Automatic annotation (TrEMBL):
Species this chain originates from: Scylla paramamosain (Mud crab)
Record SMART domains: Tryp_SPc
Keyword Transmembrane set for record: no
Keywords in alphabetical order: Disulfide bond, Glycoprotein, Hydrolase, Protease, Secreted, Serine protease, Signal
Residues annotated as signal peptide: 1-21
EC number: 3.4.21.-
Gene symbol of the encoding locus: spc
Protein name: CLIP domain-containing serine protease
Family to which the UniProt record says this protein belongs: Belongs to the peptidase S1 family. CLIP subfamily.
């Protein structure tokens, strides 16, 4: 189902559930919007759509309070004209706008490498936003999941990598360590084959200060809303080997963004020869349409998931969970995060079978709502 239509239907349901039988809304305004705030179709108010998609606690009340009428196009909401084609929902802002805490422009997505072939060692410095999550023993962690650095204080990962119902059941327990700036786990420092390339700084290790799991995780479908934030115990020192990726704008259409290009997935997970990889691996994987993907998962996918893979035996696998799929913009050489490795078939690399990723563009607002300085 189209996301905009889906959001509108959800809001219609909220209005219907809260309105009395004799209080059907009409095309005229049902409430007065604040000065300089327009009463417009919900379909044109992106922030309200983002709020509905985020399913943040209390979103129904916030949306209901914004309703200012209804017409043949559906609910109308109070939105403030931002001076462009976008609109900003008129409501109280948090003390700190989370969006201002995320890096922009050249402060994110920078890489020394813009060409990746499938299933090979990633070049040193290529993907400096890659993160390792460690379990069991803080002094000698078992690196079992991945993550993505999105700012100097936050890592984005899969909820199933940090939710105790999943981590305890798998024998891993809680996340006890977070490593940023790693390339080859067994060596320090990490050096390239060419002496012309300087060796990388030592990786940076952190304790997780706070873990925030999406409240709808695993409720709407198997591992739906598979996304979580980890706040680090201190700020990351930004270097050429530790640098955040760019988050996508809310509502980004992944297929349109990629065009004919593949996404890139990276991690230290299982390879065709080993249960895990000592060296960061990277592979190109194609976007897969839901009509191709859903039959492999018994139709149990939600709109906020996206599929990649299915070409040959190139795939993400155990240990890659929580890590990113990403790609650079066509016109700007900066990488944008598109998905989070979430689930796949038991046999990694099954020919023709895509894997399932959390579609990050649906959760950009959730991220900004949950981060702090």
């Amino acid at each position: 189902m189209n996301w905009r239509v889906c959001c509108s239907l959800v809001v219609v349901a909220v209005v219907a559930a809260t309105a009395s039988a004799g209080a059907a809304r009409t095309a005229r305004q049902a409430k007065q919007c604040a000065a300089n705030v327009d009463c417009i179709s919900l379909r044109k108010c992106r922030p309200i759509q983002d709020l509905v998609a985020s399913r943040e606690p209390g979103w129904q009340t916030t949306v209901r309070d914004a309703i200012c009428g209804q017409d043949s196009d559906g609910p109308r909401v109070c939105c403030q004209d931002s001076g462009s084609n976008d609109h900003i929902f008129s409501t109280s802002k948090p003390a700190v706008d989370g969006e201002t805490l995320l890096p922009k422009g050249t402060a994110c997505g920078q890489s020394s490498q813009h060409r990746v072939v499938f299933g090979e060692d990633a070049p040193l410095y290529a993907f400096p936003w890659m993160v390792l999550l460690g379990y069991r023993d803080r002094s000698n962690p078992a690196w079992k999941c991945g993550g993505t650095l999105i700012s100097d204080r936050y890592v984005l990962t899969a909820a199933h990598c940090v939710h105790r119902n999943f981590t305890v059941a798998s024998g891993n327990g809680d996340v006890v360590a977070v490593r940023v700036g790693e390339h080859t786990i067994s060596t320090n420092p990490d050096c390239a084959a060419s002496s012309a390339v300087p060796c990388a700084p030592a990786p940076q290790d952190f304790d997780p200060e706070e873990v925030i799991v999406h409240t709808q995780f695993n409720k709407r479908a198997p591992v739906s809303d598979d996304i979580a934030l980890i706040r680090l115990s201190r700020k990351v020192t930004i270097t050429t080997s530790a640098h955040p990726v760019c988050l996508p704008p809310a509502g980004l259409d992944v297929q349109s963004f990629l065009g004919a290009r593949d996404g890139v997935v990276a991690g230290w997970g299982a390879t065709e020869n080993t249960s895990s990889s000592d060296i960061l691996q990277a592979a190109k994987i194609p976007f897969a349409n839901k009509t191709v993907c859903e039959p492999f998962y018994r139709g149990q996918l939600v709109d906020e998931q996206v599929c990649f893979g299915g070409r040959g035996n190139v795939d993400s696998c155990f240990g890659d969970s929580g890590g990113p799929v990403f790609q650079a913009s066509n016109d700007i050489p900066r990488f944008t995060m598109l998905g989070i490795v979430s689930r796949g078939l038991r046999e990694c690399g099954t020919p023709g079978a895509p894997a399932v990723y959390t579609n990050v563009a649906f959760y950009t607002q959730w991220v900004t709502n949950n981060i702090k300085p």
